[in-house]
Design a protein that fits this description.
Layout lengths: L1 H39 L13 H16 L39 E4 L5 E4 L1 H5 L4 E8 L5 E10 H7 L10 E5 L6 E5 H4 L5 E6 L2 E2 L9 E3 L14 E5 L19
Parallel strand pairs: 1-10
Antiparallel strand pairs: 1-2, 3-4, 4-7, 5-6, 5-10, 7-8, 7-9
Length: 256
């Protein structure tokens, strides 16, 4: 008889605990749904409502502060022998690559100084600067990666040669394609990292059209969205310049 009473009490305790667990479960679901609904109704930060909800952007900005605080300009991304570089290089996007751009002789890189003056620099001028080669594992936010070989002038050498030391004291660099359809903003420490180059060759040959001819950015500390192709304009700012993919909800920093 005593055993029956004990078993009955155990069953009641189990039933009560199960009931409480179900109540907690459904309350949590209700809170999660309410939180999702609230977040989904928050304004987005990008142009035309294409960005990310402002609370999420605050989280991304907090992550950026943490990652950038630990960034070491002198630290190098792993490099590989040229023999490991892919001969057929994948293309990571074509925004800003207008098909009417064919005459490199007319192209000049525009560099806007802090004074408002603009430098107009030809590809031949850029090629006169010390050349460097970077072979690294290019990483795309689409999920693929590929060891690739690029050549050009270090961005740090470029700004030193053109007397842009004052500009490098600012917080960000902005870059735009000639048609201004694609644009990026990059933190200054990353763009001054030793392996960042203004690139005019791929696999020891001039850049193909679909890879950013005549000049593109290679910045190994960032994902592919920051490697802007066919640079038209470079400028400097203490505020974050507009960034094509950040306006569409992606992380502004996009380092790895």
């Amino acid at each position: 008889m005593k055993e029956i009473i004990v078993n009955d009490q155990s069953a009641k305790k189990y039933a009560r605990k199960s009931f409480i667990a179900f109540i907690i479960f459904f309350v949590m679901i209700a809170f999660a749904f309410a939180g999702w609904k609230w977040l989904n109704n928050q304004p987005k930060d990008g142009a035309f409502g294409t960005g990310v909800q402002t609370p999420l952007r605050k989280v991304l900005n907090a992550n950026e502060k943490i990652f950038s605080a630990g960034f070491d300009t002198g630290k190098r991304i792993k490099e590989y022998p040229v023999s490991m570089a892919a001969s057929r290089v994948k293309v990571n996007g074509d925004v800003g690559m207008s098909e009417d751009f064919f005459d490199a002789a007319k192209w000049k890189l525009q560099v806007v100084k802090s004074t408002g003056d603009t430098l107009f620099i030809s590809l031949d001028d850029i090629k006169k600067l010390p050349k460097t080669n970077v072979v690294f594992n290019f990483k795309c936010i689409e999920g693929w990666n590929q060891i690739t070989s690029w050549s050009g002038v270090r961005f740090s050498d470029f700004v030193e040669h053109y007397g842009l030391s004052k500009e490098t004291q600012m917080k960000y660099v902005g870059m735009k394609t000639p048609d201004e359809e694609y644009y990026v903003g990059i933190d200054m420490p990353s763009v001054l990292q030793h392996q960042t180059i203004l690139c005019y060759e791929m696999n020891d040959k001039p850049l193909p059209m679909n890879q950013g001819y005549p000049l593109r950015l290679i910045i190994p500390v960032k994902y592919g969205v920051k490697h802007i192709k066919r640079i038209g304009t470079i400028f400097f700012d203490n505020n974050k310049p507009a960034d094509y993919w950040a306006e569409r909800g992606y992380d502004y920093y996009t380092g790895h």
